[in-house]
Amino acid sequence: MPLSLQAAELIAIVVQSVLYGIAILLISITLWALTLDRKERHVSPVILVGLCTLAVLSTLHLVADGMYIYRGFISFEGSTLYFLDHTKFTFKNTVYFLEPLLADSILIYRCYIVWQNLLVIALPIVFWLGTIVTGAHTVWSIARPIPVGQENGQDSIFAHQTEAWVISFYSIALATNISATLILATKLWIGHKNAVRYLSSSNTQHTLKSSIYPIFVVILECGAFYSFALIAMMAVYLRHSTAAYLVNDMIGQIIPITFSIVLVRAALVRYENKEHSSSIPLSGFAARAFVPAKPFSGVSTGGTIPLTFRGRSSSGDPILTENKENEASAV
């Protein structure tokens, strides 16, 4: 039995509310982690503004959806025609359109910070611009009133012309996320391997992992999670299933969740690094993973960062931490 539009909207608002609670909790923890024990150091304005903006957008998304559901079931008594009139949630769609744009732009910014090369991020930038074009047209096409004579109870969001733009938007958003995530993860992996190679030369009895490694893993996991959500959205949408409303609302809260998880993990690594440290000559790629820093030529030269060894039975865990210069601009 297919899921009715009214049922899909009700389930969507419940699931979205749960995810919103998780998102706000993670955002609060992230803000606390970013601002705790800063003293003379400064929080990166790009990260802080981006995080707060995502919190506002996710809140607006939930509020707009809640008002839409309330009017549909209270004022219009669950009328199918009301829920088929997509002109009523143009604001919600606009907010949803802005969320991936903001999150992807910060992800691309991180790629530039670690690579310091515009050519490396050229492809994600092209995809990001494509997301702007297709997303703006998608919002406009869905917001158009249903032409007279076509109000036959069919959902206009699955109309042929609208469908082409919706799929284009999600496809390009997926390409943007995958390309930027891989570019960032590649740099972190190179830094991790160089650190392990350096440390292994003087510590052959332990299995070594740098503090970059857990950040590398969480970036891949969050990128994969968001990508799977986009793929699921395209799958249900192409089947013209009302479950698309549910997945769409979930993505609106998944974006701030994945964004916050990466920052929380990076903050945990930084605080772990404060336990014990001693300086060795290595490049500053760890500190530059998420923060603005001076241009550097590569991971094999320049810079000095503290290093900490922690024994864990048969394995060791080298922790790379920021130097004083990079701490001033850390996220």
Automatic annotation (TrEMBL):
The chain crosses the membrane at residues 12-34, 46-74, 119-143, 163-190, 211-238, 250-268. It comes from the Eukaryota. The keyword Transmembrane helix applies. This is Uncharacterized protein. The keyword ATP-binding does not apply. Keywords: Membrane, Transmembrane, Transmembrane helix. Residues 308-331 are annotated as: Disordered. Residues 322-331 have a biased composition (Basic and acidic residues).
